[in-house]
Specification:
By secondary structure, this protein is of the alpha+beta class. The protein has a seven-stranded antiparallel beta sheet with strand order 7-6-5-4-10-9-8. 31% of the residues are buried.
């Protein structure tokens, strides 16, 4: 009986010591793997997310050999048949996986998956909406659109036709509408009836802009399209249930504008034209405003700062702006000041902003000091930028508005 007990204790002690040795080896191997991964991460191209460019990625795809931010790694989980993601520091890594990361990396992946990205195709940034980042990732790794040029036809052919859900101007309902984008006609058109011959609206490509606004529109694939009619801004809000379909429309608009600008500015480099294809708004949000005499009551309005145009709306989804203000440069006597003029009357939010133009002063108020600071910075950025020759014509139009 004693022999059996002694043997049991000895065996347990032996096994316990052996497991400690094995565990120690595993721990040491994992530490070596993580140390090597951190060294690979220090290579210049690996220091930012391969998909959106966010700094200091802490995730990786061990099947694609790329380094990712956490946000993009979440998208990669939806293409698990192609990409297997792991935390660089928290997950266990095999020697084979580490070796694969060593022999690949972000530069190699870009050379493989981005061979033929059109100049006009939108490359998302860390601040872009989920839809743009997801479709960029799927286009690269899943559909391989930038390896096989024929797969780019939906947005590069110069013509696109289809149905989108468009928000109605009056009741706010989304209704199916036929859209046609034609580079030959130089316009995007939509039709109220599927068999209509004449479009409800014709939007010239040279004034067209498109910006994804999922939160504002209340649809994850929501796109805001703006254009000029009689030099005043008009908005339409559209979406499609299929994310790829919506991003294809967005890039088709960018392609049409790119080809228009190539003709309009034949000597320009692609790098000069690409920033002009579409633009996000500098800032949007609520402020209060008063009238030109500064004696009227302040009213809460939704404001959009689009380049040098400050527009205000009663509702964020209005088709037409209630008014627009042109903001020029400081060289042309435009200034932005904190606070309001002493003679300002009426109840209003506490934090004021005054925009001084050559013709008059515009008074606005913000609900919080932080909002005031953000709007001031946005306005100051516009005022500090010298005006381009073509912007003087826009300014002249504003001065002659009734």
């Amino acid at each position: 009986m004693f022999l059996i007990n002694f043997w049991d204790v000895s065996t347990l002690s032996f096994l316990r010591c052996d497991s400690v040795v094995i565990s120690s080896h595993i721990s040491t191997d994992q530490e070596k793997s993580k140390t090597l991964l951190v060294e690979i991460l220090k290579r210049p191209a690996n220091g930012s997310c391969v998909d959106c460019g966010a700094a200091d990625p802490d995730w990786a795809s061990c099947t694609l050999g790329v380094f990712l931010c956490q946000s993009c790694s979440d998208i990669h989980r939806n293409i698990s048949q192609i990409s297997k993601v792991k935390s660089i520091l928290l997950a266990p890594w095999s020697d084979v996986e580490v070796e694969f990361m060593l022999s690949n990396g972000n530069d190699a992946a870009k050379a493989k998956y981005e061979q033929k990205v059109p100049a006009f195709y939108y490359r998302p940034t860390p601040t872009d909406c989920l839809l743009l980042r997801e479709q960029w990732i799927r286009a690269r790794y899943e559909r391989k659109e930038f390896v096989c040029v024929e797969r780019q036809e939906p947005y590069s052919s110069g013509y696109r036709e289809g149905f989108l859900w468009k928000r109605g101007r009056d009741k706010g309902q989304f209704l199916s509408r036929k859209f046609i984008l034609s580079e030959r006609d130089g316009a995007l058109k939509y039709f109220n009836k599927h068999d209509a011959r004449e479009p409800k609206a014709l939007m010239k490509i040279h004034t067209l802009n498109a910006s994804f606004q999922p939160e504002k529109i209340g649809q994850p694939h929501g796109l805001q399209i703006t254009y000029l009619k009689n030099n005043s801004t008009r908005n339409i809000f559209v979406y499609h249930e299929d994310g790829k379909e919506m991003v294809d429309w967005f890039n088709a608009i960018r392609a049409a504008r790119f080809h228009y600008l190539q003709v309009a500015f034949p000597g320009a480099y692609d790098t000069d034209l690409v920033p002009k294809l579409t633009r996000n708004y500098i800032k949007e949000g609520y402020m209060e405003k008063t009238g030109p005499k500064h004696t009227e009551g302040f009213k809460r309005r939704w404001f959009t700062l689009d380049d040098r145009r400050l527009m205000y709306f009663k509702d964020p989804l209005d088709a037409y702006a209630r008014g627009e203000v042109f903001i020029g440069s400081k060289e042309n006597s435009y200034t932005v000041l904190p606070g309001l003029t002493p003679s300002t009357q009426g109840y209003h939010w506490q934090y004021g902003i005054t925009i001084v133009t050559p013709d008059r002063k515009f008074l606005f108020t913000c609900e919080t000091e932080e909002e005031q600071r953000d709007w001031m910075a946005a306005f100051q950025g516009v005022v500090n930028r010298p005006m381009l020759p073509q912007e003087y014509a826009v300014e002249a139009h504003f001065k002659h508005k009734p």
